[in-house]
Amino acid sequence: MSDKLILFDFRCKTCNLKFEGLVKQEVRVHPCPDCDSEAKRLISTPKLDPKLESRHNIWVRQNAQKIRQDKKFYENHGVDKKHHSYGS
């Protein structure tokens, strides 16, 4: 395995503290900084580049006119806003 250190999230089995630890990739448990009990590594989602536009935002931008038309239709016909897909 690699000697690189990677930042992982851990949760203590005893005190339930969630913390980050800089460890090798193969490390699955780490001592808790509060109670020194065993903490397990958590599965976490990767951090994406914040400059990248999400698929949802691209869809909204491409369909902005249709969304405005639908919102206007819902408002004019008394449809409860919380029950349609475009929110309030």
Secondary structure elements and their pairing?
Layout (H helix, E strand, L loop, with lengths): L4 E8 L5 E7 L4 E3 L6 E4 L13 H8 L1 H13 L12
Description:
With 88 residues, this protein is an alpha+beta fold. It folds into two domains: 5-41; 48-79, no CATH class. The chain contains two helices and four strands, in the order ββββαα. The longest helix is centred in the last third of the chain and has 13 residues, at 64-76. The chain is elongated. The termini are far apart.
Short overview:
With 88 residues, the chain is an alpha+beta fold.
Overview features:
88 residues, alpha+beta, 4 strands, 25% strand
Cα-based radius of gyration, to the nearest Å: 23 Å
- Provide a count of the helices: 2
Pick out the low-confidence regions. Answer: none
**Span between termini:** 51 Å
Instruction: Please tell me what the overall shape is.
Output: elongated
- The amount of helix comes to 10-25%
**SS strand fraction:** 25-35%
The counted number of beta strands is 4
Topology as a string of helices (H) and strands (E): EEEEHH
Number of domains: 2
